[in-house]
Design a protein that fits this description.
With 202 residues, this protein is α+β, with helices and mostly antiparallel strands. It has a single domain, classed as Muramoyl-pentapeptide Carboxypeptidase, domain 2 (2-Layer Sandwich). The protein contains 5 helices and 7 strands; from the N terminus they run αβαββαβαβαββ. The protein has helices at 2-20, 28-31, 62-79, 92-101, 157-172, and strands spanning 25-27, 36-37, 59-61, 82-87, 122-128, 175-178, 181-187. The strands form 2 sheets. A 5-stranded mixed sheet has the order 2-4-5-7-6, covered by helices on one side. A two-stranded antiparallel sheet has the order 1-3. It is globular and about 40 Å long. The protein binds zinc ion (ZN). Zinc ion binds at residues 87, 117, 122, 124, 184.
C-alpha cells in the first residue's frame, strides 16, 4: 500500500513539473488588449543601441499572461491605472547577442545560465495613468544605477508610493519582485519553466 502511495506522490510531482514546463507562449495582446506595450528592444532606444527583436509584440507563458491581465484589471478598477510592459519573453539567441554587446553581468544575464526572461515567466513593466503618462518611479526602465533598487533612499515619498503600488499589485497575483530593478517581476515557480529559443518575427 505504501509503495502505491509513494508512486502516487511521484506522479503528482512529475505531472506538476510537466504543467510548468509547458512551452505554450501567447501574444499578450490576445489575452488583454488594454495592456500598453513599449518594447524598447525592438527599437534602438535601449541600452545596447541596437534593434534586438524582429517584432514589438510581447509574448509570455499563457499562465503568466493571464495573471498579468488580472493585475491590469485590478489596478484599473481600484486606481484607474493600467500596465505598460517593456519586455516579456526573450529568446536565448537574443540573450547571447546582448551578452556579446555588453558582456557585464551587472547589466546583462550571462546566456550560459540564461536570463529569467528566456523562460517566458518574467516581465518588465510600469504603471500609467488614464492619459497614458507613466507614474514617476524615480528612474526609467533599464536604469542600471542604485536608484533603480526598490529600496533606494534617493526617492521622493511619491516615487516610493508608486513603486509600492506596482509591487503590491503584482505580488497579489503571484509575481515576485527583484530588489535591484523596480520594473522586473517573475511569475512564481519561474525556475520550473525551461529556457526557450523560439524567435517570433511578427
Ligand atoms: Zn527584466
Amino acid at each position: 500500500m505504501r509503495k502505491y502511495f509513494v508512486l502516487f506522490l511521484f506522479f503528482c510531482v512529475v505531472s506538476f513539473d510537466f504543467a510548468q514546463t509547458d512551452t505554450n507562449l501567447v501574444f499578450l495582446g490576445d489575452v488583454d488588449s488594454t495592456i500598453v506595450t513599449d518594447v524598447r528592444y525592438a527599437t534602438v532606444n535601449n541600452f545596447t543601441h541596437q534593434v534586438l527583436y524582429p517584432t514589438a509584440k510581447v509574448y509570455l507563458r499563457k499562465i503568466v499572461a493571464e495573471h498579468l491581465a488580472l493585475v491590469n484589471n485590478y489596478v484599473k478598477e481600484k486606481y484607474s491605472l493600467r500596465l505598460k510592459v517593456f519586455d516579456g519573453y526573450r529568446p536565448l539567441s537574443v540573450q547571447k547577442k546582448m551578452w556579446k554587446i555588453v558582456p557585464d553581468s551587472r547589466y546583462v544575464a550571462n546566456p550560459k545560465n540564461g536570463s529569467r526572461h528566456n523562460r517566458g515567466a518574467a516581465v518588465d513593466l510600469t504603471l500609467i495613468d488614464s492619459t497614458g503618462k507613466e507614474l514617476d518611479m524615480g528612474t526609467g526602465f533599464d536604469n542600471f544605477t542604485e536608484k533603480a533598487h526598490y529600496n533606494s533612499q534617493d526617492l521622493t515619498e511619491r516615487q516610493k508610493e508608486n513603486r509600492k503600488l506596482l509591487r503590491d499589485a503584482m505580488m497579489k497575483f503571484g509575481f515576485e519582485p527583484l530588489s535591484t530593478e523596480w520594473w522586473h517581476f517573475d511569475y512564481h515557480g519561474w525556475r520550473k519553466f525551461n529556457i526557450l529559443d523560439k524567435v517570433f518575427t511578427k
